[in-house]
């Protein structure tokens, strides 16, 4: 755990990615993080564990550092103004892994509320979100169906994956990597846009366009006032 105060990639650093893992209690947030970081499934996790873990991972052939925040304390982050985190996960994160349990319908409802809420509170509405339905191994206890998840995810334009932290390590790996890839793609897009806007020719063009717009507005205003 190194630097907890670095800025998210929206501020221009595509080599570091902040991921906040959110969801209801007992859905397997810590289990997924531990599985991703260590490859192991322990079974029981300290429910009061809240931390940021750093790991180096490759995405599309390039290595970068992912900072992963386990929000064990935030049972409902939408009302966590008294959160014990040093960092507010909502403004800190570049991407969100929202976890629910496929055996717990209420946790699915909470994740759906979280998506709407995140899109309201984050200025960049298209903040990357991946929803993971965990505990897919507990087939006999399942209460959230695949069509339920797929339909909702498609409506919302969200990435969705079923995972099992206990039985399917590759599914957990895929979920994290896929979210990181999405964050990086967005970061690269922003980087390219800001580079383009800084080019003198583009800046001059934008300035001319703005001047023409101002002139046109002035002209409309004059025409309107001269009719009185
Ligand atoms: N069968 C099964 N059990 C799981 C899976 N993932 C986690 N669990 C179990 O679910 C329980 C809760 O896991 P945690 O990782 O502590 O859940 P959490 O969301 O971090 O919980 P809080 O810290 O209370 O917010 C533990 O008993 C885990 O062993 C899974 O994929 N399959």
UniProtKB/TrEMBL annotation:
Record-linked PANTHER family: RAS-LIKE FAMILY MEMBER 11
Residues spanning the signal sequence: none
Catalytic activity: GTP + H2O = GDP + phosphate + H(+)
Hydrolase keyword on record: yes
Pfam families from the UniProt entry: Ras (PF00071)
InterPro entries associated with the record: P-loop_NTPase, Ras-related_GTPase, Small_GTP-bd, Small_GTPase
Annotated Gene3D superfamilies: P-loop containing nucleotide triphosphate hydrolases
Family label: Belongs to the small GTPase superfamily. Ras family.
Protein name: small monomeric GTPase
GO function terms (MF aspect): G protein activity; GTP binding
Highest classification ranks of the organism: Eukaryota, Metazoa, Spiralia, Lophotrochozoa, Mollusca
Protein's UniProt keywords contain Hydrolase: yes
Keywords of this entry: Hydrolase
């Amino acid at each position: 755990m190194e630097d907890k105060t670095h800025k998210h990639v929206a501020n221009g650093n595509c080599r570091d990615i902040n991921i906040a893992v959110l969801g209801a209690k007992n859905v397997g947030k810590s289990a997924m993080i531990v599985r991703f970081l260590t490859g192991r499934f322990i079974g029981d996790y300290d429910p009061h564990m809240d931390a940021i873990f750093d790991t180096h991972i490759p995405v599309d052939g390039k290595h970068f550092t992912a900072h992963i925040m386990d929000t064990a304390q935030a049972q409902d982050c939408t009302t966590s103004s008294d959160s014990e985190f040093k960092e507010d996960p909502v403004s800190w994160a570049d991407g969100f892994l929202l976890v629910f349990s496929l055996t717990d319908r209420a946790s699915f409802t909470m994740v759906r509320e979280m998506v709407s809420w995140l899109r309201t509170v984050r200025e960049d509405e298209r903040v990357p979100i991946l929803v993971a339905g965990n505990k897919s191994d507990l087939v006999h206890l399942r209460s959230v169906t695949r069509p339920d998840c797929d339909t909702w995810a498609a409506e919302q334009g969200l990435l969705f994956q079923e995972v099992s932290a206990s039985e399917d390590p590759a599914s957990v790996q895929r979920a994290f990597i896929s979210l990181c890839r999405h964050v990086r793609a967005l970061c690269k897009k922003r980087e390219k846009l800001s580079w383009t806007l800084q080019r003198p020719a583009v800046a001059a063009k934008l300035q001319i366009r703005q001047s023409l717009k101002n002139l046109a507005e002035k002209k409309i205003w004059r025409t309107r006032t001269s009719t009185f």
